[in-house]
């Protein structure tokens, strides 16, 4: 038997190889699927980690330890040559905190997926330093982080190695005039309470007398402040505005131990190791970080979302590809079995046992599949990994899950069943039937149940997809392919009657009109297409393949456009620079100076909201909005900018070195009460806000004076501050009769026009208690503060400057009438314009003018993370100019980067795979077409030879070939386009391949017919190559046989 | 090649064949076609017989019924002791693999074209080889029997037309059947080729005593095989033995007139039949009285 089989395969090696190649391709797809998923998983994890913020890849355990190191030393800098330095050989710190903290947390975080970093820091004062240093107090951190020298750039000197050696950042060294080898006295400090500040007239930081002299051994700069190494602690943040813009002093832990300090902060930061994070590790990592306050779960959620989307999108074409692979194999094996009918008749004629008959009938195909399995498995996985390695970045090796082995076995079984099923009919046929050449007329009805099942499945899948709310799964995940297949089934059945009609009409007109030979060829070709066994099935296969290519290509193009639109909206501008934290006023001034033309750069700030339920608010410089921002299509940026730029009262400005206020204070004498009165000014030259403190007030009408040298060049009055200090419920009244500004010492003060109470607003917060009331009286502005014990943070009465309530442009569903304001105060807003989508906030949020917001702030020095948006044509000099204005660019996001990020997320990776699979689908269909043409060739040649014998011209025979092949492809292309369009109409809006289809205007009814036609056309063109080649090959054989017969 | 020997000089191992009122109807979309309309035929074990007759007369259908490739619509087909109508498909397949050899018209329809003659013969006797108690000739002996000695490794494409037909004959007899059914073995062969094939058939019959039924259009084949049964319109029309032609009385008593007689006396002609001392005479008569014998 082996000899027979060997002869069989050797005699028909081309057919066996073709079947083997088809089966190999199908098995390769089976193997490639999990390999691609594994690689894509690794890639998406790497992408999400790379794109994550520091808080999304680190977690931190922090402990504040109250200690008493050197604080008690009563010595000062003048006490001795060593100053008031504390005893460096003092015993260990008097730690009152839980000393087990570090080991406990470290144990939790030392899983193999984390790199743990220990850090400790204290606050110090550098006020008294070497001669020539600035006298202004600078309160930096003294910080130790494990391996910090590897994460900074040493600009001079070296890293500290010994006790009392420190490393200064460049700016601080310059400010302190501290060179390498200089001694620096570091004083202990403590933070004061608000009451202490008010009652003792001290600042937020109070220097302690004890200090330790340290030696500056080097300077540094931090190349990337956002590096995850630095963890989530705000070492580089100046958000509080009370430290000055300085970076930490770096040193060894021993030095921190000897520096005077009253509290020490200890951190154990854990940073995710990108290379160690695998799919298998995700649940464990999530479990590990659960007790910690970290955003790692948010990043893991994105990974999960990516993986889910990928697993929804991949089957979209992969499953049809596999099914079609099996079906093509079924067709190929069936066609081969048909051609082998006489041979099967011989086998049956010899009365062989059933097993022998089966084996001889199916062995060729089964052996081809058996060889194809290891070949496909060997090729599929590496091929997928190779393609993925090129298209998907992944630093981590991908591992395939063991579950795929079951899948591969199942698909191998399906393939074998397809092959066996293809031989079933010839095997059960009688010998006389096998010997007949007449096609079986009952054959076309045998496929009816299968075709009906496809239609029913398509209807069920679409109905379920439309009804369910979740992502497609199971049957619904292949709904588009089922729709295309159903259309192919229905329209495919129309092909024979239509082509028959065309053929008969063409043949019928022969002899009656000119061009008879041409029409005869056309008619014969059409008849062949109509009556050829398997032609209808071939049309369906080709239609499904190129239809799915059209669908996948259209989805890919639409998804790409969607991503581009969403990125443009989400980012807001072509480039966005994060410039650290600064105040709105300083940001506006810096951007204005860097780009005076207003065409290239725009200041922007995200305004904090009271809760996540409030719509996000973005403050922008509305005068530059049209020039810089990516404005969504369908709305008018000029209208929005005009709506934001509403007019309002001018601010109250003063030019003075001192101010004098005439006020009457009133409160119940039965309570202990201290009320502080002050005025807040903001210098016009961009300096820090000035608090003109009139000090403690007294009952009755008095005049108070405060020095404001910073306002000599002009200041804006931000507000008047009344701070009651009492523990008893009482009402405090303050009547402001006048505010006078004296431009110079001894000069006569000029009245500042205060206006009526309508020109002022009260800013205070004590939820649930009576609010302060401002009214106008004949003798000035009268403020009444009830329940004064609840307003110990003060009540501000601020002059209204600019439009108020602030005009905002809001999306349709953003209905807030107030925003928290950057400084925590509540700012009333009014909706001046509505639109569907806005930059950055997308479909839910508000835009407000940053200039107006700055005027509405009562603490204008409050800093927030700031951004500068750049237009596409912004020159690089703008960035240099921004840095020259003191803005430090910490990171930059561009449209290209964001698009690249989205293109590596699950939906985009999935649709890329689907497109690749659709191309493979067409290649499979191409192989099917080639194989069937090969199998059918000799019979076709025989027919044409017979026609030639009957007198048909060679050109007519050629034309019939061309018409038959071209007609097949044209029919397939038309059906594919209709099927793809219907699939889009019914399923596109439910596919998770789009980020925000509403924002990008994608709807199911808006069929991207152009892209679909390109996909279908490309698929048909590829198939046409095979069809034309097949026709030419037959024509050549026909010519050759004609010459031989002559 | 072994020279033919007279049937009477060797042991008879062939199977007897009997057909009684065999009817076969092909069902078609355009209507039913009666291929056999009551065939009665008896073939003795070891006998050689030619089925002759015009195309469409039912010869091949009768052979197909004898081979068990089809079931008769009515009547009885006996091969040896087997009633073919009562056998299952599996039993018929076993019969074809052991006791009934079939050679279809066209040599290529009997052979696997990708395999050489050895492998074709091996395949043809596989069923018989697995049956117990049967001793089979080796392939070389079989090839020798049909005059293809030394051609065992040849493929069908390597052989001349008559050799192809003998190769088909070889696979037909490979399993040592008691009945060999051969359809048109000499068509499209020249006279030399025809003789080669007929010699091979006669050799098989002489050596093995195989009952052989040959379907042919060639009357000479019938003459050479000794007995020729003419099938006309689905019935046994006549039979020739040793150069003499006979009319045959069917089991229902009907007798087919020879075509030349039928041309003279068309359907509807009435006769009176007299028989006396082994002589039967037909006299034209009846009401019409218009027909007369020459």
Provide structural commentary.
The complex is a heterodimer of chains A (1046) and B (294). Chain A contains 28 helices and 30 strands. Chain A is an alpha+beta fold. In chain A, the strands form 4 sheets. A 9-stranded mixed beta sheet of chain A has the order 26-27-25-28-12-11-29-10-30. Chain A has a 6-stranded mixed β-barrel with strand order 2-3-8-5-7-6. The longest helix of chain A has 44 residues, at 296-339. Chain A is elongated and about 125 Å long. In chain B, strand 4 and strand 5 (82-83) form a beta hairpin. Chain B is an alpha/beta fold and 294 residues long. In chain B, the strands form 3 sheets. In chain B, strands 6-7-8-3-9-10-11 form a 7-stranded mixed beta sheet, with helices on both faces. In chain B, helix 3 packs parallel to helix 6 (161-173) and helix 6 packs parallel to helix 7 (191-208). Classes of the chains: A alpha+beta (1046), B alpha/beta (294).
Summarize it:
The complex is a heterodimer of chains A (1046) and B (294). By secondary structure, chain A is of the alpha+beta class.
Computed Rg of chain B: 21 Å
Strand percent estimate of chain A: 15-25%
**N-end to C-end Cα span of chain A:** 42 Å
Overall body shape of chain A: elongated
The main sheet of chain B comes to: 7 strands, mixed
Strand count of chain B: 13
Low-pLDDT residue intervals, each spanning 5 or more residues of chain A: 73-103, 128-136, 239-243
Largest interface: A-B, 25 and 33 residues
Helix content of chain B: 25-40%
Order of secondary-structure elements of chain B: EEEHEEHEHHHHEHEHEEEHEE
Structural class call of chain B reads alpha/beta
Task: Describe the largest sheet of chain A.
Answer: 9 strands, mixed
């Amino acid at each position: 038997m082996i000899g027979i089989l060997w002869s069989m395969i050797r005699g028909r090696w081309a057919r066996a190889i073709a079947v083997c190649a088809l089966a190999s391709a199908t098995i390769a797809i089976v193997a490639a699927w999990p390999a691609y998923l594994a690689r894509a998983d690794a890639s998406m994890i790497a992408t999400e980690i790379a794109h994550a913020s520091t808080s999304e890849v680190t977690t931190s355990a922090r402990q504040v330890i109250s200690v008493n190191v050197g604080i008690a030393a009563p010595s000062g800098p003048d006490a001795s040559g060593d100053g008031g330095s504390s005893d460096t050989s003092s015993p260990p710190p008097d730690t009152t905190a839980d000393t087990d903290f570090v080991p406990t947390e470290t144990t939790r975080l030392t899983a193999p997926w984390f790199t743990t970093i220990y850090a400790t820091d204290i606050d110090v004062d550098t006020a008294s330093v070497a001669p020539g240093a600035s006298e202004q107090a600078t309160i930096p951190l003294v910080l130790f982080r494990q391996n910090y020298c590897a994460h900074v750039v040493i600009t001079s000197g070296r890293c500290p190695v010994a006790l009392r050696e420190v490393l200064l950042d460049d700016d601080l060294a310059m400010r302190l005039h501290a060179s390498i080898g200089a001694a620096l006295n570091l004083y202990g400090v403590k933070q004061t309470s608000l009451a202490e500040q008010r009652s003792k007239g001290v600042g937020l930081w109070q220097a302690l007398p004890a200090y330790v002299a340290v030696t500056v051994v080097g300077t540094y700069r931090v190349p990337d402040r956002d590096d995850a190494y630095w963890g989530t602690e705000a070492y580089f943040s100046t958000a509080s505005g009370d430290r000055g813009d300085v970076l930490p002093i770096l040193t060894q832990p021993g030095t921190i131990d000897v520096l005077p300090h009253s509290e020490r902060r200890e951190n154990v930061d854990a940073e995710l190791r990108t290379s160690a994070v695998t799919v298998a590790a995700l649940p464990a990592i999530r479990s590990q970080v659960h007790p910690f306050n970290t955003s790692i779960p948010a990043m893991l959620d994105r990974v999960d979302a990516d993986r889910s989307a990928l697993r929804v999108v991949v089957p979209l074409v992969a499953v049809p590809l596999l099914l079609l692979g099996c079906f093509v194999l079924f067709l190929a094996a069936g066609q081969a079995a048909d051609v082998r009918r006489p041979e099967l008749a011989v086998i049956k004629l010899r009365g062989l046992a059933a097993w022998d008959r089966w084996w001889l009938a199916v062995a060729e195909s089964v052996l081809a599949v058996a060889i194809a399995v290891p070949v496909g498995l060997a090729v599929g996985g590496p091929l997928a990994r190779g393609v993925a390695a090129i298209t998907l970045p992944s630093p981590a090796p991908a591992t395939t899950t063991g579950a795929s082995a079951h899948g591969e076995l199942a698909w191998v079984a399906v393939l074998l069943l397809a092959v066996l099923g293809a031989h079933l009919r010839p095997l059960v046929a009688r010998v006389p039937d096998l010997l007949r050449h007449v096609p079986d007329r009952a054959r076309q009805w045998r496929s009816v149940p299968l075709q009906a099942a496809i239609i029913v499945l398509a209807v069920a899948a679409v109905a379920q997809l439309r009804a369910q709310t979740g992502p497609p799964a199971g049957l619904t995940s292949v709904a588009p392919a089922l729709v295309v297949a159903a259309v192919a089934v229905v329209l495919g059945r129309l092909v024979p009657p239509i082509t028959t009609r065309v053929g008969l009409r063409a043949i019928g007109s022969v002899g009656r009109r000119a061009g008879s030979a041409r029409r005869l060829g056309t008619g014969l070709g059409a008849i062949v297409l109509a009556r050829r066994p398997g032609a209808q099935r071939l049309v369906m296969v080709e239609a499904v393949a190129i239809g799915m290519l059209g669908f996948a290509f259209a989805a890919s193009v639409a998804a790409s456009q969607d991503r581009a639109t969403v990125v443009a909206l989400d980012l807001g501008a072509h480039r966005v620079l994060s410039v650290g934290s600064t105040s709105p006023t300083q940001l506006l001034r810096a951007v204005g100076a860097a780009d005076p033309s207003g065409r290239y750069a725009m200041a922007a700030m995200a305004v904090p909201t009271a809760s996540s339920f409030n719509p996000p608010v973005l403050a922008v410089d509305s005068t530059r909005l049209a020039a810089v921002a990516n404005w969504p299509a369908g709305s008018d940026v000029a209208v929005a900018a005009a709506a934001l730029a509403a007019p309002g009262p001018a601010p109250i400005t003063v030019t003075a070195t001192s101010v004098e206020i005439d006020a009457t204070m009133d409160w119940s004498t039965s309570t202990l009460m201290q009320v502080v009165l002050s005025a807040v000014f903001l210098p016009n030259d961009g300096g820090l806000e000035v608090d003109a403190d009139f000090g403690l007030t007294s009952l009755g009408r008095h005049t108070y004076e405060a020095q404001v040298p910073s306002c000599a060049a002009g200041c804006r009055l931000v507000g008047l501050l009344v701070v009651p200090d009492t523990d008893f419920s009482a009402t405090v009244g303050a009547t402001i009769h006048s505010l006078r500004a004296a431009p110079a010492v001894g000069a006569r003060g000029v009245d500042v026009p205060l206006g009526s109470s309508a020109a002022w607003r009260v800013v205070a917060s004590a939820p649930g208690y009576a609010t302060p009331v401002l009214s106008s009286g004949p003798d000035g502005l009268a403020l009444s503060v009830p329940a004064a014990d609840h307003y110990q943070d003060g009540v501000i009465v601020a002059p209204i400057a600019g439009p108020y309530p602030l005009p905002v442009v809001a999306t349709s569903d953003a209905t807030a009438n107030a925003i928290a304001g950057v400084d925590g105060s509540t700012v009333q807003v009014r909706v001046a314009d509505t639109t569907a989508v806005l930059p950055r906030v997308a479909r839910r949020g508000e835009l407000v003018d940053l200039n107006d917001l700055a005027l509405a702030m009562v603490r204008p020095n409050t800093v927030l993370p700031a951004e500068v948006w750049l237009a596409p044509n912004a020159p690089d000099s703008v960035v240099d100019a921004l840095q020259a204005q003191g803005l430090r660019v910490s990171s930059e996001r561009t449209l290209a980067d964001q698009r690249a990020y989205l293109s590596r997320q699950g939906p985009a990776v999935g649709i890329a795979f689907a497109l690749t699979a659709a191309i493979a689908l067409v290649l499979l269909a191409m192989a099917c077409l080639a194989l069937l043409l090969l199998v059918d060739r000799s019979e076709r040649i025989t027919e044409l030879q017979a026609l030639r014998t009957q007198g048909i011209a060679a050109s007519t025979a050629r034309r019939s070939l061309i018409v038959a092949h071209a007609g097949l492809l044209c029919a397939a292309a038309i059906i594919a386009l209709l099927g793809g369009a219907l699939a889009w109409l019914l399923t596109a809006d439910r596919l998770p391949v789009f980020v925000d289809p509403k924002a990008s205007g994608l709807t199911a009814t808006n069929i991207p017919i152009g892209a679909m036609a390109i996909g279908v056309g490309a698929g048909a063109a590829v198939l046409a190559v095979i069809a034309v080649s097949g026709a030419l090959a037959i024509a050549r054989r026909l010519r050759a046989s004609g010459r031989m017969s002559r | 090649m072994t020279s033919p020997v007279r049937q009477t000089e060797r042991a008879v191992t062939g199977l007897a064949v009997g057909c009684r009122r065999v009817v076969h109807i092909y069902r078609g979309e355009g209507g039913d076609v009666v291929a056999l309309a009551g065939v009665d035929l008896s073939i003795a074990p070891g006998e050689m017989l030619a089925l002759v007759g015009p195309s469409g007369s039912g010869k091949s259908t009768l052979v197909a019924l004898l081979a068990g490739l089809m079931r008769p619509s009515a009547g009885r087909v006996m091969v040896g002791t087997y009633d073919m109508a009562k056998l299952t498909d599996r039993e018929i397949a076993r019969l074809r693999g052991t006791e009934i050899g079939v050679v279809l018209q066209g040599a290529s329809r009997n052979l696997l074209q990708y395999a050489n003659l050895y492998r074709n013969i091996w395949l043809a006797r596989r069923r018989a080889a697995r049956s117990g108690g049967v001793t089979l000739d080796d392939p070389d002996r079989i090839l020798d029997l049909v005059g293809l000695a030394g051609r065992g490794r040849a493929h069908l494409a390597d052989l001349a037309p008559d050799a192809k037909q003998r190769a088909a004959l070889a696979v037909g007899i490979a399993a040592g059947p008691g009945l060999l059914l051969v359809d048109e073995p000499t068509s499209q062969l020249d006279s030399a080729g025809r003789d080669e094939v007929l010699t091979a058939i006669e050799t098989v019959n002489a050596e093995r005593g195989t009952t052989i039924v040959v379907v042919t259009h060639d009357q000479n084949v019938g003459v050479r095989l000794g007995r020729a049964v003419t099938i006309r319109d689905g019935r046994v029309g006549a039979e020739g033995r040793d150069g003499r032609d006979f009319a045959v009385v069917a089991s229902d008593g009907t007798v087919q007139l020879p075509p030349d007689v039928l041309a003279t006396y068309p359907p509807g002609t009435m006769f009176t039949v007299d028989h006396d001392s082994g002589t039967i005479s037909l006299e034209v008569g009846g009401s019409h009285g218009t027909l007369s014998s020459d």
